[in-house]
Each structure stands twice: as C-alpha cells, then as structure tokens.
Design brief:
single chain; 175 residues; 79% helix; elongated; 10 helices; mainly alpha
C-alpha cells in the first residue's frame, strides 16, 4: 500500500464486501476477496478468518486453501502453511503458485529436496515462472551444482533479467 488513497480504497472495498457478505453469507468468493483485502492491509487475523469461512462454505476451493496458505507462510506458521498448500495442491495439482509457495516454505525449513521438487513442479506447469526458476538456481548453488545454476541463470536472463542479475550478484559471483 503506497498512499493514503490506496488505504482509503481498500477500506472502502472492505466495507463493500462486508455488506455483500451480510446480504449473502454463503458467498465463498466474497469471503476470499475480503480475505485478500485484509491481507493487503496486513490484518492477517481477519484474512485467515475470511479464508477459513470460504473453505467452510466450499471445502473443494483449491484457491481458498492456497490463499490461506500464503497467510500462514507470511506469518511463518510453517506447519499450517505446509498442510494448507498440500491440500490446495491435492485439489488442483496444476496450480504453479501453490507448488512454488510450498517450495518456499520447505526452503525456509531447510527441506531442500522437497523444496526443489516443488519449484520444479511449478516450472513444469508454467515454464515461464521466473521466481521458481530463481529458487531452483539458489538451491543448485546451495547443493554445489553450479553448472545447473548457470543454466537457470541463462534462462533467467531472458525470463526476468532483474532476477538473473540478483542471482549473479548475490550468489554466483561469490562462488
């Protein structure tokens, strides 16, 4: 959130969504959207509540599980994040962002093999997912596989030059 105008807009959105939910409390999508708005203002407790409401209304909503996982991941509630991302992936195995976030949480927990597998699944689904390629390269560097990291670096120069530069300056150049 950059300006007072953005903040006012988000708070107006929240009030509007709360009114929608009051009229139709079974609108799972409205709960997800309200959870997003709370997330944007860093009201994570309210965000979790709304995503859980959406899941209670529609337990097969993979996206709601994914969104809940992102809040848990942001809060470093890693056990809950892992469970929630795994549920999201079980409902929609072709969602690259759920695989990516699960990989991110695994990376934070030094579960390198599992993390790399998740990032690889994300790029298998979306070959242009630059951030997942970046993390694969970081894990390659961490495990001493500089050759594979350099291959990802070359790919990133095309997909996301800023990430390629960050990878080179922060990691590859040190080796």
């Amino acid at each position: 959130m950059n300006t007072h105008k953005d903040s006012a807009h988000i708070h107006n959105t929240i009030r509007t969504l709360e009114a929608v939910i009051t009229r139709n409390p079974s609108d799972a999508q409205a709960h997800c959207t309200l959870g997003d708005a709370y997330f944007d203002i860093e009201d994570y407790h309210s965000s979790i509540k709304e995503y859980k409401n959406a899941i209670a209304l529609d337990p097969s909503n993979a996206h709601a599980h994914y969104l809940l996982g992102t809040v848990y991941g942001t809060l470093e509630r890693d056990t809950e994040a892992i469970e929630t991302f795994c549920k999201s992936i079980s409902l929609d195995p072709d969602a690259p962002k759920a695989h990516y976030w699960l990989g991110y949480v695994y990376t934070n927990n030094k579960r390198i093999d599992e993390a790399k597998r998740c990032f690889q699944q994300a790029v298998d689904i979306d070959p242009h997912f630059a951030e997942a390629h970046y993390f694969i390269a970081l894990l390659d560097i961490l495990t001493g596989n500089i050759g594979k990291a350099m291959e990802k670096y070359e790919l990133l120069k095309t997909l996301a030059p800023d990430l390629a530069e960050k990878l080179y300056n922060d990691e590859i150049d040190r080796k």
